[in-house]
Amino acid sequence: MSAPSDPMADEADAAPTLWHYDGVSALRRTPSLDMAGDGFWLVDDDGRTGPFAWSALQARDGGGGDAVYGLADRPGWRIGFSGDIPAEIRDRLPAGGRYGRLIDRFGLAPATAAFAVVAAIAIFTLMKLPGLIAPFIPAEWESRMGDAMVGDFGGRLCDGPGGQEALDRLTARIAPHVRPIDVRVANIDMVNAVALPGGKIIIFRKLLDDARSPDEVAGVLGHEIGHVEHRDVVQALLRQTGLSVLMLGTGGDAGGYFNALVSATYSRDAESKADGFSIGALKAANISPRPTAAFFNRLAGEEKVLGKAATALSYVASHPLSQDRERRFAGSATAGQHYRPALSEADWTALKQICSADPDVAESSDWLSD
Question: pTM (2 decimals)?
Fold first, then answer.
């Protein structure tokens, strides 16, 4: 059996221990507290110090469960209570801050869930913000930005005999009823095509070199025109560069904005709609979609063989390929349909040789990062 409880001993064990640092020395004192009106004195063998006003105390973070208080005008001054504080003292002490505050109040799991919801809303808003802003951007601003980007090419735009005229005829055939589209070829050794603001589209020479027919180019061009029509270009630019593109305007870093568009990736929904536009355009122009499907299939095969090297600033980097896209183009073909070539043989030859008059053929993509 246990020994009988001693009430006096229990009361002594429950009494709090008061400790004190005066902020001058490192000596820990254990004074008694003498209450006096609106304040108190600290009393030990060295005498009495004070008075200290209750209202001057500020709760501090303690350790080991102690209640700790300091004075705002006396750094290092502390008093601390270990154990239960008598009610007459506790009622005069300032309310202590709780570690974690709201987290402690609601609990870790609910607080974590709430922060996750807030973060998801913020991310969703940031992702949707370009789409919300893009429709309100004036067409004049977009056109000036596109002109600035095209002008940044300097002498790299190709204009070989008959090439631009052939490209204009192809553009008019694919998109006869959309807003004005200006398509140019840049003498850059890269398989890519990029839509710019203001209805501008740049096809890189290497894409023409690798294309096996004008029908393949027609499908790629239709896809880029789809991005222009859906204003995906401005959204991508805002997503890549933020609102700085609006604040800096056309007098800013046009080359940097062009780089951003080259490396931009559109959403799956935007890519799907651009493919849909291209398929519809090819059908209206009576151009077979099968060559475009074959072009995507070849690029996908090269991507698998070359790995990451194939995606560096190439068509597969900004236009992720998939078997679904290839099947969609191939499946849109009508059995038994007599399709017309996208260009005559003479126009296709002129387009393929559009950069032949340019002695400076870019052998790498270094220019894009200048």
Answer: 0.59
